[in-house]
Design goal:
Blueprint (H helix, E strand, L loop, with lengths): L1 H9 L17 E2 L2 H19 L4 E2 L5 E4 L8 E11 L3 H14 L6 E7 L7 E7 L4 E8 L13 E8 L2 E2 L8
């Protein structure tokens, strides 16, 4: 399921509204390093709002060119991470914390509830219009899976920015 979310985001199926870096409006000019730094700050705010103590994946943000955009010039920043090795009740409380706290931090919750997967995982989708980010968060509850090699329950976060344009003389890294 997390792979599906990541595939949709990387494949250019942006969850952002059309006015945020689409072909109908020019992309904001922004250095890649600045956009990545802001993505880390936004991700950290999401982590803090969840309030869950557990292990967190390590990879940082990365860039991909915007689908159908000016090759080598337009990019989005993505940051995928998860929290695991925490009791399922803590992960559930983390989702509730996010639903309650993100609007106070400038996020607009677009949807909250079971997703359309067979497992009906809890999903939160929100937009941060002022900073031009979208986040898709899933709670994968494996607590009832008694198989010997059952996966752990996790809180999975997929954050992506609007489409930006690198300054003259720079390329997407």
């Amino acid at each position: 399921m997390a792979f599906l979310s990541a595939t949709l985001l990387l494949g250019g199926c942006s969850m952002n509204s059309p006015d945020k870096g689409s072909s109908t409006s020019p992309a904001e000019v922004r250095r890649v390093s600045d956009a990545k730094d802001e993505t880390v700050r936004v991700s950290s705010d999401i982590f803090d709002a969840a309030g869950v103590k557990g292990k967190m994946t390590e990879p940082g943000p990365f860039t991909r060119e915007c689908a159908g955009a000016n090759s080598g010039k337009n990019y989005r920043v993505f940051h995928f991470w998860s929290i695991w090795d925490a009791p399922i009740q803590d992960l559930k409380q983390g989702m509730e914390n996010l639903r309650e706290k993100l609007p106070g931090k400038g996020w607009s919750i677009r949807s909250y509830g079971p997703d359309t997967s067979p497992s009906r995982s809890l999903e939160l989708i929100a937009d941060f219009g002022r900073k031009k980010f979208t986040v898709m968060i899933h709670l994968y509850d494996e607590s009832k899976n008694s198989a010997p090699q059952a996966p752990e329950s996790i809180l999975s976060v997929a954050l992506n920015s609007a489409c930006y344009q690198v300054p003259e003389g720079e390329t997407v890294d």
